[in-house]
Amino acid sequence: MVRHIVFFKLVDNSEANKSDIKNRFMSMEGKIDGMQNLEVGINFSTEERAFDLALSCDFVDKEGLKFYATHPVHVAIVTYLKSINTVTKVVDYEY
After folding, report:
1. How many CB atoms lie under 10 A from the CB of residue 28?
2. CATH assignment of 2-94, among 3.40.50.620, 3.30.70.100, 3.40.50.720, 3.30.470.20
3. What pairing do the DSSP bridges indicate for beta strands 2-9 and 35-42?
4. Sign of CA dihedral 76, 77, 82, 83
5. pLDDT tens across 27-78, in order?
6. Partner residues linked to 87 by β-bridges
7. The sheet that has 53-59: what strands, in order across it?
8. pLDDT at 69
9. Cα–chain center distance at 61
10. pTM of the full structure
């Protein structure tokens, strides 16, 4: 199995914006072959180093992750996030 985790730092970190982005990610559920699990969390930490959202999804293998990376549903969300200058950090690992 492969886990894909991404942290997001938003320019507009209002609750409404964070909720909108979470809903965009959750709309991927059931639409991408190979995705086994999808979870999106809105951060409540007020620390300076904290990011605003976290995405965690699991795939059967690295090929599933590659398929997800280029899937139109995912690409549309990535394109949107880039357009609003979102900073991201990623970790991908096998378990």
Report:
1. 19
2. 3.30.70.100
3. unpaired
4. positive
5. 999 999 999 999 999 999 999 999 999 999 999 999 999 999 999 999 999 9
6. 9
7. 35-42, 53-59, 2-9, 87-94
8. 97
9. 18
10. 0.95
